[in-house]
Amino acid sequence: MADLFDTSPGNTPETPVRDAPRPLADRLRPKTLAEVIGQAHVLGPEAPLGVMLEARALSSLIFWGPPGVGKTTIARLLADETDLHFVQVSAIFTGVADLKKVFEAARLRRRTGQGTLLFVDEIHRFNKAQQDGFLPYMEDGTILLVGATTENPSFELNAALLSRAQVLVLERLPLADLERLAQRAEKEMGRALPLTGEAREQLLEMADGDGRALLNLVEQVAAWKADAPLDPATLTARLQRRAAQYDKSGDAHYNLISALHKSVRGSDPDAALYWLARMLTGGEDPRYLARRVTRMAVEDIGLGDPQAQRVCLDAWETYERLGSPEGELALAQAVIYLALAPKSNAGYAGYKNAMAAAKKTGSEPPPKIIRNAPTRLMKEQGYGQGYAYDHDAEDAFSGQNYFPDGMKRGVYYSPVERGFERELKKRLDYFAGLRAKRGG
Length: 440
What we know:
Elements: H1 24-27, H2 40-43, H3 48-55, E1 61-64, H4 71-81, E2 85-90, H5 96-111, E3 116-121, H6 128-132, H7 135-139, E4 144-149, H8 153-156, H9 159-163, E5 166-169, H10 175-189, H11 197-207, H12 211-222, H13 232-238, H14 251-265, H15 269-281, H16 286-301, H17 307-322, H18 326-340, H19 346-361, H20 376-380, H21 421-437
Parallel strand pairs: 1-4, 1-5, 2-3, 3-4
Helix pairs in contact: 10-11, 10-12, 11-12, 14-15, 14-16, 15-18, 16-17, 16-18, 17-18
């Protein structure tokens, strides 16, 4: 059964027949870490892995990054660099019984002086109890664990496991690195891709930072018979663009809605539209976006432009009536309006300040003068006595104290000098002056 996981030479059932056709991505697999394209921030001489290898002190690792950026390749090469036996398993296909056999084989290997680097792909798919199963074998040195995940380790992995491993973030390959990879592929194939410069750049963009996806695309294009270099339109007609990486319940979801929210807050309508489009093309539910955009109006525009909330609610209703894709235009217009509206979080901050004061003061009752007195007993207790009816007062303002007796008057709402709140600040200052004049 160990053969299912052991990928050492001569011990892998999937070992290809000699001279059998091999995919381009497999033929170009780096043989040393120096051949890896990209990820210099973790592989460079002063980067985490470079320092570990220099010191010959490799610790357990978690590689976090999107598909096609080299997680498996780097793990395999780390085993080569440190003379560790490389074993690869996938959390999708591996059960507890299978893991026990892997651990037992590693223990036997250790007795003969051979260490084991266990690479676990999609490690986040193991549940918490299964993740705990790795701990004793990591602690006693039976295995050196290298896990790979596309999900945020903070949310998906046990704290105990994370405390015993260093998380390294692998990044999407930029266009420059993808171009280097394409050139390496052309050298391997012995011919250039039949593309114009613009079409070549479009091919790199189609890969969306995924090196493996690029090599698959390159292999397809290289097989075409072309009398002249192909232009972008022809390339688009022959290839289908990869769907953007987007998980509506994963890390990308929260990253993109954060980007949209902060672009609106930063008064950048172009960036806001871009992130809105990214989420919609990724398959996000427009109703979720309508709710979040309305929240932005309340949280970041507030009374700086009271109309903003109404614009968002109208856009939400318009989407419900029209559906996709027409209704999404209403959401886009709401996003533009919010980005260009005067910003104020004074109402939001005032609410939080008042909530903090309410929790601190506990059950302090209102002063008797503003309590209702529907019964004789309540009237005898002084409820409502001395209340000044503001409409009968000068300027329709009595200036009475409405806070609990003995509580210092709180100041929670502080409007800004922007948009409609500039007018509200004038009103607030006006009533503060009257209150001071009347000793309230």
